[in-house]
Amino acid sequence: xxxxxxxxxxxxxxxxxxxxxxxxxxxxxxxxxxxxxxxxxxxxxxxxxxxxxxxxxxxxxxxxxxxxxxxxxxxxxxxxxxxxxxxxxxxxxxxxxxxxxxxxxxxxxxxxxxxxxxxxxxxxxxxxxxxxxxxxxxxxxxxxxxxxxxxxxxxxxxxxxxxxxxxxxxxxxxxxxxxxxxxxxxxxxxxxxxxxxx
Length: 198
Fold this sequence. Notes:
Elements: H1 2-6, E1 12-17, E2 20-21, E3 24-25, H2 38-41, E4 45-50, H3 54-71, E5 75-80, E6 84-90, E7 97-103, H4 118-127, H5 130-140, H6 146-169, H7 189-197
Parallel strand pairs: 1-5, 4-5
Antiparallel strand pairs: 2-3, 6-7
């Protein structure tokens, strides 16, 4: 942001604030309630948005983009969220698809229950589930229902399986072609040397 504040350019910064940095709660990392307060310090327009509301995020990003282009300056969007990972669950007693959110760990080696209580995560899922929120919005307007979901699932599964079958019939590329579309000029000596050894 420092560079964007001194050399005006239409850069759009989007910070998803999920309340954690790896395993440390943001409340233990800095004073203040988020990242948005840093923008004005650099002279950068800043928008804070509910990151669990897809329509609010779309609106905020559109406004930020508009400001970037009109002013030729950077804009920071902070989307306030919570660390979730979207999953799909099926309930055998009901044929409809049930959307839910599971615990999101920072990485495969991270156990987020070491630094946040399971009850906290379960409460957040009940109070403010972004998938359920948007699903209810679409259902209330008649844009979505369980039949549409079943049709979409079947169509997407068929498309994926068709693509897998097609991919299995394709000839594999030569290993040397791995970098042909990466470099504009001559490939670096270390890549050429490695390919010769293969």
